[in-house]
Each structure stands twice: as C-alpha cells, then as structure tokens.
Amino acid sequence: MKTLLLTLALSAVCGSIWALPAPTPAPYRAFCKTMWLFDANCSDISIVLVKQIQSFAPEIGCEMCHYTLVSVTPQYIMANHTSPDGLYTEMISIAFFPTMVPGGCRASAVSQSVLFSASLLDNGVNYCNLHNLVTASGLSSQPDFLEMTNEWACLSVGLATCGM
Ligand SMILES: *[C@@H]1O[C@H](CO)[C@@H](O)[C@H](O)[C@H]1NC(C)=O
Ligand SMILES: *[C@@H]1O[C@H](CO)[C@@H](O)[C@H](O)[C@H]1NC(C)=O
Fold first, then answer.
1. What is the pLDDT of residues 23-70, one digit of tens each?
2. CATH number, domain with residue 145
3. Which residues form the signal peptide (predicted)?
C-alpha cells in the first residue's frame, strides 16, 4: 500500500511536470554560408587565408583577433572564432574547388554558431567571421574577386556591420 501511494504520488509529480509548458529548447544555430570566387589557384588562396587566421590568433591581441586554426588540408580549412568575452564560439570551414576556368578558385565558406539560440539572427557575427578574413587579407580587393551570399544562406547579412 505504501508503495502504491508512493507510486501514485510520484506519477502525480511527474504528471504535473509534463503538464507545465516546457521551456522550448531553442532550436537554432545561427550560420552564414557564402561563396567566394578568386582569380588565383586554390593553393595560393588557402595559404593567404591560413596566414590571415594565424595573424588573427587571440595571442596577437588585436580587436578582431579571436580566430584559432583547427586544421588545414589542401582542400579544406577549419577554424574557430570566439567572441571577445569567450562565451560564444563559431566554427568556420572553408572548402576549395578549382574553377572550370583554369587558374581560378571557388571557395565555399561556412560559419556556424556552436550554441543553439532563440533566433537565427546573430547581428552578422557569422557573416563577419568570414567577410573579415577576405577583407583583412586583401583578397577582396583583388580583381575579379566575387562574394556571393544572400538572406537565405546568411540570414544576418543585411544587418552586418563588420570590422573591416
Ligand atoms: C599556383 O599559382 C602559383 C603562381 O601564382 C604557382 O607558383 C603555383 O605553382 C600554382 N600552384 C598550383 C597547384 O597550380
Ligand atoms: C573548436 O570549437 C569546438 C566547438 O566549441 C571545440 O570542440 C574544439 O575543441 C575547438 N577547437 C580548437 C582547436 O579550439
């Protein structure tokens, strides 16, 4: 009898927990996808981007220096970017593909927040993580450089005011 009461009491407690409006787990991980076209071969572009990420390492101490190189292969760069307060991390990946036209390179770059949040809007953090690399490295001012993204691939692009 005691056991039965306990079971009933417990199921009542559990029942009422389930009846509460559960705090909805925030389902979004903000991200930005962008494509870059360069009039140079991919190995040259990759070297420039890796150098830029390394010179934006936290130890350097500049305002935008919150990048950490995770891995590099000839086809792929992975890096992390952390907010200045260290609370937020975004993971960056850049994949390289030679273009049909010889001597060109297409890069597919993605920055994605590690934490889930209540909104896909990130004030342009993920866009700027990518954009700052091509501007700071000078790649974006090369002739025939092209950056292609839009609100579907990079929801916050319209709100972004990047450092550079
Ligand atoms: C890329 O271009 C550079 C010259 O800008 C050249 O020295 C290098 O050999 C090329 N690499 C490949 C893999 O084509
Ligand atoms: C990059 O960020 C991910 C997710 O927070 C973490 O698991 C990983 O250890 C980080 N890598 C480096 C080299 O900081």
1. 555 568 889 999 999 999 999 999 999 999 999 998 888 888 899 999
2. 3.30.310.80
3. 1-19
Distance 104 CA to ligand 1 centre (A): 11
Q: What is the pTM of this model?
A: 0.81
Domain span at residue 86 reads 27-159
Encode the chain in three state secondary structure: CHHHHHHHHHHHHHHHHHHCCCCCCCCECCEEEEEEEECCCHHHHHHHHHHHHHHCCHHHCCCCCCEEEEEEECCEEEEEEECCCCCCEEEEEEEEEECCCCCCEEEEEEEEECCCECCCCCCCHHHHHHHHHHHHCCHHHCCCCEEECCCCCCCCHHHCCCCC
| Structural domain count of the chain | 1
Indicate which ligand has the atom closest to the C-alpha of 43: 1
- Structural domain includes residue 12: no
Residue whose CA is at the smallest distance from ligand 1 atom 2: 41
142 within ligand 2 shell (Cβ under 6 A): no
Please tell me if the CB atom of residue 44 comes closer than 6 angstroms to any atom of ligand 1. yes
Please report which ligand is nearest the Cα atom of 96: 1
Confidence label for 10 from pLDDT (cuts 50, 70 and 90):
very low
